Amino acid sequence: MPNDRRARAEGAPWFLTLALEDRGAALLTERADLLRRAMAETARERPFRLDAAVVLPNHLHLVMRLPAGDGDFSGRVGAVKARFTRGMRAVGWNPNLPISASKVRKGEAGVWQRRFWEHLIRDEADWRAHVAYCWANPVKHGFVARPTDWPYSSIHRDIRRGIVPPEWR
Predict the structure, then answer these.
(1) For the chain, what is the total number of helices (H) and then of strands (E)?
(2) Residue 154 clears pLDDT 90, i.e. is over it
(3) 8 A C-beta contact, residue 155 and residue 149
(4) Is the Cα dihedral 111, 116, 46, 1 positive or negative?
(5) How far apart are CA 97 and CA 103, in angstroms?
(6) Which of the residues 152, 153, 154, 155 is marked catalytic?
(7) CB under 8 Å to 164, separation ≥6 — which residues?
């Protein structure tokens, strides 16, 4: 019998937060090209739609919607993390971080925190709140004064599509 929560979540949007192991690093913005490629390759292999996304130097937030009948957001997150890590290694990245014995045994590179935070979006109001959270997050962290000043945000796509006004705050 399938997990009831997972069954309810198939095809539903999820709010996800993924963080680097080194919270002082800026790999995600420094190598946004590799992250973008990892997301695109994963989406081609295992489709999903990003309702919203924001990439900050050491973490990212996504509102990810899966196809109907599919509840495997975790597999997609793992694929994105693995592809980004392989991309970093391919460009010669070599961490100067101590990697735990457990991560070494499992062949992990120490780029990402093992776990990620997930929240099943409950309704339209919850969805709107999490999309807005993504857009506002660079302001919250003090990187920019306005959401539209941050280049690594889906707010720009949504402005182009006419979904959100350019002066959104």
Answers:
(1) 7, 4
(2) yes
(3) no
(4) positive
(5) 12
(6) 152
(7) 135, 155, 158
User: In whole angstroms, what is the distance from residue 155 CA to residue 161 CA?
Assistant: 10
DSSP 8-state class, residue 112: B
In the block, residue with structure tokens 């694929």: 79
The token pair that represents 149 in the structure block: 């000043």
**pLDDT tens digit string along 2-45?**
445 555 567 789 999 999 998 889 999 999 999 999 999 999 99
Q: Is 133 a catalytic site residue?
A: no
- Phi, psi (deg, nearest 5) at residue 25: -80, 165
pLDDT band at 101 (very low <50, low <70, confident <90, very high): low
| End-to-end Cα spacing for the chain | 45
